[in-house]
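We close this part of the discussion by returning to an individual protein. Part of our work consisted of pairing the sequence of a single chain with a tokenised description of its backbone. What the numbers capture is local backbone geometry rather than side-chain detail. The amino acid sequence and the backbone structure tokens for this protein are reproduced below.
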Amino acid sequence: MNVLDVTLDSTARLIVFAFLLIVLALLEIYSPRRKPRHSKAKRWISNFGISALSSVFVALALPLVGVAAAIWASERSWGLFNQFEIRPLISIPLYIAVFDFTIYLQHRLFHRSKLLWRLHRVHHTDLDYDVSTGVRFHPLSIFISATIKLLLILLLGPLAVAVLISEIVLNATSMFNHSNIKLPTKLDRFLRYFIVTPDMHRIHHSVEVNEHSQNFGFNFTWWDRLLKTYKEQPARGQDFIEFGIRGYSEDRSIGISSLLTQPFSKDQES
């Protein structure tokens, strides 16, 4: 296995993450969609803190993830793509599309299963909505997601560069569509033909069950539209969406220890 390729993967993802974080954070300051209702400092410490813990946990629990898994599968000719001579111009976008559809289905599964929902709910109990919400996931939720990605890589055997691109796109779009930035209405409408926008995904974080059960896409909007889970606008309008899950107040939704134990505590949804 080429250690250099794995190192470049981590470096590229870190550079893109840091760049987008700075850009989106500045845009949230100078062109916010909504005024924050809770302490940004406390939320960011909690959200980025649990994200860092999740990254360490997955790195320790799964020795093969992302590009490393793709290289490992390629060396052993594992996966569907390794059984045929498929041009990169076809295999790369094909994998990105299948990867995104898998993330969409996984997201719906996390909402459907009671056990998985308890883990995923940590993401939804954020009481405000900004770029940090895009990295707020319980470590066990991230571990399950990483395992699903690993199985997909072993099944398809994509090129390492395809895996790298798909992961960078997922990280970038997750940060973008969770950001508290205000886009011109016409631009938002145009972008929604291709990618998930902040106004589109913000609906998914509403306390209203019929709204957070819509708009599951992270990257592309096609799956929501095709499978009829697309919602154009929230019932009360963007300015009046209430974020979070009913029953989870600030003392249970902010603080790393609270987020880590939240899935295992008494269910307080109402």
